[in-house]
Structures are given as C-alpha cells and as structure tokens.
Amino acid sequence: MNFAGLWTKLRGAGGEGLTLPVRDGVPIHSTQVSRAHGFDLLLVWVVICLLCLGLVMVYSASIALPDSPKFARYESTHFLVRHLRAIGVGLVCALLCTQIPLRVWERAAPWMAMGAIVLLILVLIPGIGKVVNGARRWIPLGLMDFQPSEFAKIAIAMYGASYMVRKMDLRENFWKAVWPMLATVGLLGVLLLAEPDMGAFMVIAAIAIGVLFLGGVNGRMFSLVLLVLIGAFVLMISFSEFRRERIFAYLNPWDEKYAAGKAYQLTHSLIAFGRGEWFGQGVGGSLEKLHYLPEAHTDFLLAVIGEELGLVGVALVIFAFFWLTRRVVQIGRQAIALDRVFAGLYAQGVGIWMGGQAFINIGVNLGALPTKGLTLPLLSFGGSAVLMNLIALAVVLRVDLENRQLMRGGRA
C-alpha cells in the first residue's frame, strides 16, 4: 500500500488551502473534527454516546418491572434485549441509508408520504393494529412492533422539503403553495388523533410548519397557518375532557384531586428529580422506578436519569440535544448555501424534529409542559422510534458528506 499517497489524499480531504464559499453573507463552514473522514465524526460520537446512555438507563429503569403482575412473565433483561436489538437494526439501516444519494430520497419523498398515510390507515384496522393502554399505534412485525407515526415524522420531513423545492416559484400564493401541504398534514393529523396520538401530531405539525417557514413562505401566510394550527389544538383540548383534565393537573399537580390521578406521573417525576440533587443516587439507585413512576423506561426516562445521575447528568443530556440540534441545522444551512435546497430543508426539518421532541419530553418530565406521551429521541425505549431516529440522522450525515464533496470541488 502506498502510505505516502494515502496521506496526501487525507491531507487533501482535510481541505488545506481550501477557500470556503460565501452565500448571502453566510460563510459555508465545515466542522473541524476529523475532516479526513468526509463526514462529521463528532456528530456520530454524540449520537453513539446518547445511544449508550439510553441503553444503560433503559436497563436500569426496567430491571424491576418483572416484579409487577403486569410484567411478571418477562425476564429482567427483556426490555434491555429488545432495546439493544432495535439499536442494532437501526445502526445497520442507518449505514445502508448513508449510501443512498439525496437525489434518490428526493424522488422517493412523495411516495414516502403516501406510504405513511397507508400505514396510519392500516394501524387503525382491528386485527392489524395492536392496542396498548387504550391506544392503537403499533403493527406487530415479529422482530419489533412498528409504530407508523414514527415513520410519518421522517416522511413529512422528506415530503415537506421536496414540496417546497417543487413549489418554490409559487410560495407567495397561499392556495397553490401552502394549502396542499396543510391538507396532507391535516389528513395525517386526523389519522393520528384516531389512534389517539396527539404528541406525534404536534411533532409532525412542527416539522411541516418549520419547513414551510424555512422554505420562504410569505410571512403573513405563515402567521395564518400558525394561528390555524394553534386554534386546532385549542379546540381539541376544549372538546376533550381527558385533555382538559391533563391541563388542570399540570397547573396544580399537588392538588389532592390530581396527585393520585392525572398528575400522578408528574408528581413522581418531580420527586425523582428532587432525590437526584446534584450528582444523583448512582446508577441503579432510583426508588421511583420501583413501580411508583409509570412508563419510567419510555416517556419518563429523564426522571430516572435525574434521580440516578443528578442535575449534572440532566444538564449533560440537555446540552447534548442542544448541540445535536444546532449541528444538524448548520448542516442544513450549509446545504442551502450550496444550492441544495431539498437536502438543506430536510436536514433542518430533522433538527426541528429532534430538538422539538426533546424539548417537549424534557419539559414534560420537569413539569414545565403538560404531560404528553412523547419519548426522548435516541434515549427512551422504543424500537421503531430509535430505528427512525437513526435513519433520519443517517440521511443528515449523507447531506453533510455531499456538502463536503462539493466544497472540495467534487460532485455530490
């Protein structure tokens, strides 16, 4: 092997002497970490660290569940094995997805949106969809229970980016530019609320609105769309006694009327954070996970992290998601500056997805937002959620890789 030639190639890939282009006054920059690899290695390591932390904490939060009659037939490692299997499948799929050019994803985007709608219809059919805790959200596939709403998130990010590229010349016209996109989101919303899964609908709506805004939709039209969606959420809460009770419980969780009912999860989550103090009780030291805090390994995993790793552990998780979101959005801005609008809008849509869902989950766990059933991306137990998170981020890595190839004078 010619090591001298290889070293020359690696130095060239590092971009020595490369003048970065500037567009609209924004420099197109690349992360300084491991440029020779052709992709953002630090982003990969942050994702791996979150996956590893999630694996440890899911095991810690679920190890005592077999003591409950509901999970008596499970082994103590049941959720650990399933989570590990989901991560393994997700990493393999992610590796494959990084090999697919963005132009292929762009052509497939409308079909992915149609596939998401079909899957959301199928999951509502008795005998196909699986009911858990009164919600029909999963399709059993043997290896894992697949949740179509998770696929719908990546589908709407792809479709929204593709849609804005196709409608770029019509973005000032509401009926031609915005209304068809809103109709698609509305159809997804109706199907999701039939499950019911309002949390997933909120995330999908946020992705769609974000992509429309970043795609340059007229400000007045964007404000109108935002007001319509806010009004829709207010109406859904107003006409649903269950959701109204959740809001009242959130406002006063320690009231006797709610503490043992609608606010039960929230109060025990706050107790967990209180017990954690600065440095926590140590891994495995949580008491709230011992059948006091429901869904400790899924929606309220952060509360277990807070109890076992303390304020320091929670702060590191929040910082990791802040950095991850910021970096993904930067990759999107870089792609748009290189005239790769689909790739850029998709990456920014994923940034809105990851950052928005993490923000909601963290807010719910800390009592800053009303209780809502959303997992913490990359950390919480959930096979299809982890799978779709890894695939979405793998495509973002592909965006970054093609950006770097273009900046070196090559082809994406």
Characterise the protein shown here:
By secondary structure, this protein is mainly alpha-helical. It has one domain. Helix content is 65%, strand content 4%. It contains 14 helices and 5 strands. The protein starts with a helix and ends in a 5-residue tail after the last helix.
Shape designation = globular
Q: Could you give a short account of the major beta sheet?
A: 3 strands, antiparallel
Helix content: 55-70%
Strand order of the largest sheet: 3-4-5
DSSP E strands, number: 5
Q: Report the mean per-residue pLDDT as an integer.
A: 84
Helix-strand pattern: HEEHHHEEEHHHHHHHHHH
Structural class: mainly alpha
Flag low-confidence runs. 1-36
Strand content: under 5%
Count the domains. Answer: 1
Tally of alpha and pi helices: 14
The separation of the N and C termini measures 27 Å
- What's the Cα radius of gyration? 22 Å
Give the SSE map.
Blueprint: H1 3-13, E1 22-23, E2 26-27, H2 41-62, H3 78-97, H4 102-122, E3 130-132, E4 135-140, E5 145-146, H5 148-166, H6 174-194, H7 198-214, H8 219-238, H9 241-251, H10 256-259, H11 264-276, H12 301-337, H13 341-366, H14 383-407
Antiparallel strand pairs: 1-2, 3-4, 4-5
Helix pairs in contact: 2-3, 2-12, 3-14, 4-5, 4-6, 5-6, 5-7, 5-13, 5-14, 6-7, 7-8, 7-13, 11-12, 12-13, 12-14, 13-14
